[in-house]
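Internal ticket #5521
Category: modeling
Description: The requester needs a full-assembly model to guide mutagenesis choices. All entity lines are attached below as received. Residue total reported by intake: 290.
Assigned to: D.W.
Attached entities:
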Amino acid sequence: MSQRYFEDIAPDEELEPLERLPTEDQAVEFFGRDNPTNPAFGDAEAGRRMGFGGALVPGLLKLSWIANYVGAWAGPGANLRSVRVAFRRPDIAGKPLTLAGRVVDKRREDGRNVVELEVVTLADGQPSVRGNVQVELPSRP
Amino acid sequence: MSDVQESRITDEHRAMIGRASDPIEVVPRTADARRMRELLGDADPRWADGTGVAPPYILAMLEPRLPEDLSPRVLSSGILTQTEWTFSRPIRLEEPLRAVTRLIDVRDRLGGRYGYSVLVMFQTAYLNAAGEEAAASLRTITQFDRPQS
């Protein structure tokens, strides 16, 4: 896990896309097997009964993937300030998702190095989640 | 979703804005953090075993259900459409936090892609024993009328 430094970041810089394959088991395991939430998260039949094509991928799992994706890009010396996502359409377990992102701004704010990114999850090339993430990056030593 | 062109938000709904839940104690558990890290394949050393620090996405386990008595029922159905997490400092494992949820806004969305809908926004603050905020979440529920089948 390498460290990114504020001075080396340029607006429009793109993050390496990352593919994730959500499964029904992941959806259940994410919240813990003794902590059921939406029955459609771990049960394709329940998802179909609710009008979806199968088991739903929890929004909070996708949000966590986005936080993790940006955190891994930024490196261990960075601080995640905020992550905001809009859920645009449901995702179905078994269909791959691609995370992609780019830097949209960098600035000094109250003595801190703030970098803003836009991140999306793409299913069949269409955004299913759109996110904005703010991280603080260290200066190059 | 319906094609209403006038607000269905009443004064009674608006009067609920600002109301807060009673505090609920939530604890970021070490076992949850480890399970989630492994599931995500997260090798970040900041929240590895032994650091006592939770990964930021531990908030997914802490989010309290939205209290019924804080939720104005303007339209018949609702789904979570936006979430924002904000971090004031790292979250410590096994540190009890008080979660306080507040209704912060109710607003119309006229003429959207799916017709009339209502945005209901809740903020949950996670406070330590000294009352200092560790993190906060903002959740937006989009309410709509399910079409008659």
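Resolution: model delivered.
Comment from assignee: Chain B has a mean pLDDT of 92.
Ticket closed.
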